[in-house]
Q: What sequence folds into this?
């Protein structure tokens, strides 16, 4: 919980600094919109690194806890994560299409 609050605090601080540097919320939003492709590339790199870490962790878990139940639990987590990423990216794409 404390870790999540720390991340949230950093995100708020980044936005406050960005708004201060841009001069207004509108300018900050325009800057973020104009750099949307870079943010997409950053997210794709992040997803690739998370996937690589997941593959490494999955191998270790399956070696430590062999069995069909473990594979089923990991498959459910994988499916859930993929669904979340697809929904987040779809929401971003729709936001861009509406604006």
A:
């Amino acid at each position: 919980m404390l870790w999540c609050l720390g991340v949230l605090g950093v995100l708020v601080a980044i936005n406050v600094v960005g708004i201060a540097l841009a001069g207004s919320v509108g300018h900050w939003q325009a800057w973020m919109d104009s750099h949307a492709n870079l943010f997409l590339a950053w997210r794709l790199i992040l997803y690739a690194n998370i996937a690589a870490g997941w593959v490494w962790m999955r191998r270790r878990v399956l070696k430590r806890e062999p069995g069909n139940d473990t594979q089923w639990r990991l498959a459910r987590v994988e499916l859930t994560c993929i669904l979340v990423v697809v929904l987040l990216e779809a929401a971003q794409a729709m936001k861009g299409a509406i604006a």
Observations:
- The longest helix spans residues 68-98.
- The chain has a mean pLDDT of 90.
